[in-house]
């Protein structure tokens, strides 16, 4: 064999050995990477079962804060996009727990995207090993919001009660000092009666508002005939309508039903009718009717009154909010009637809508889920039929 052949064979052998070693090394590196990935993502025995049993938001993250596992509650709150934590505050807490090799907890306010309410949470991070960390979240948003509502409500009630109570106190003193003047006594007594009536109405509305806030009418719901609800609301406001010479026109019988608490729904409609009467001009008209649209019943109350300015449309359902303080005093308004309507509608799975133009009037529409009439309703005579009989 020539020297040239020996050289060529040597080169070929060297290349073959080099390629073989390269392939072996590459396979070893890939295998090592797979083992490291498996070690990084595999959770200890029973950890997955524990996560599945948790009803609160929980996540497990690795050394780079990538999410290895998350409960459905954590995904629902938007704490992760499935790969990483979405809030830097949580990342900092996890890093502290990993660095200190100890559990760390804190209260956080997590800012969410526009249009979503911020989260108020208690977060706790606990190391599983040198890299992985378990993150537990206690969502306290509803509790904090309800506490804020309670504080605001108490403050508002205290403020609203001051005016009529102060007026009653002053008038009683004036009445005592004018004991020898019959005309003054009659004048002060009449004003005292007015203020006492306003105070009684406010207390009654506060009681009603507290009741609808804490009640769940759908827990013991019944089929409610809306024709009878509307008729009852008109009957309850008849005296106020006659006093202001306002005619209330009830639409034709609809035969529509909804599911819920009959007394609450009647209160909501009554409040809307009373509000329409109070803000209508003398000799005005209030229309009241109900219709069905795509599985939803719509109870509409329309007036031809003063209307509501556009800047007030989003606020009229707030507690104790009045668009016209002077007029509310003259009509005896408490600022709670529309808030009660809104809560009753929402408690029944519905909503209340408002259309209004200054000088043209307003239309409030309560929208509730429709339910079929009970089988017994067809055989039951109406109140008018009973009266004819």
UniProtKB/TrEMBL annotation:
The chain crosses the membrane at residues 6-29. SUPFAM superfamilies: ATPase domain of HSP90 chaperone/DNA topoisomerase II/histidine kinase, Homodimeric domain of signal transducing histidine kinase. This is Sensor-like histidine kinase SenX3. It is found in: Cell membrane. GO terms for molecular function: ATP binding. Keywords: ATP-binding, Kinase, Membrane, Nucleotide-binding, Phosphoprotein, Transferase, Transmembrane, Transmembrane helix, Two-component regulatory system. Pfam families: HATPase_c, HisKA. Its EC number is 2.7.13.3.
